[in-house]
């Protein structure tokens, strides 16, 4: 079958919870909980996809430091092949510090080595043997963004299928050449806000119609409303699995991507893959952080059965 290769950013998340209010300049407040976990959209995607049972390899870069060790050990524990992750002696592994109070959070990210990750760091032998390429968080990786069209061309010339989730642009410039990029992307997986920002449209269907002239399959994530796909000009809306007790929605989008791609690459239709993506996104909201619910495939199946009344026998057929 071949591997699914994720080319992307790696960092850690330090999450401080239970604050009464945001910190104020010159003063100090206390958090009542703290966790240090695997961060970054690409890593959460790779981790959860591997836990679901896909064969996943990561191509990325971390520093030769403690945060780098943490990222590597967490990915390996979930079965992700990390042979092609470069360790850079000169730069640090980045981190996001997230402080949260109630449903609100404020985040600061130090990109570290992800700033410098680009085509030169890619192990092409690994790509040549793989079947699918996934790229995420393109605005956090300036060098990879510059090389994106070449990377996708190369993947297509190697006979691979491709997927892209752009994620948020911290500069809010949204300067991606989508007319060049999207013809090379088999599955485009933005969320609603990102889709509107990238296309300059005010409504989802209008934005999808605009993309239909040059994009392939587009699946837009709509949070609690589920997702909407466009394939050959046909729209398919699939509602979410309602979770009344959301712990947090960190990584729900990456988990959706993992579910969708895991299922789609087994030969299922876009619509069935949307349903499976929604299930895996909903499962992600039942635990803290992006990987909390993804301890093992058996645990994921158990949550699907008990919390979402979902029979895996149906879906695996
Ligand atoms: N409260 C919820 N209840 C059930 N399912 C949810 C909920 N929130 C999200 N999901 C599922 O997860 C999917 C992805 O969520 P969302 O639309 O928030 O993605 P995103 O904005 O890309 O997230 P991320 O911040 O992880 O990038 C949704 O399409 C839906 O299927
Ligand atoms: Mg997202």
Automatic annotation (TrEMBL):
Pfam family, one: PfkB
Keywords per UniProt: Kinase, Transferase
GO MF annotations, alphabetized: kinase activity
Ranges of residues in domain Carbohydrate kinase PfkB: 1-291
InterPro entries the UniProt entry points to: PfkB_dom, Ribokinase-like
Protein's UniProt name: Carbohydrate kinase family protein
Lineage, uppermost ranks: Bacteria, Pseudomonadati, Bacteroidota, Sphingobacteriia, Sphingobacteriales
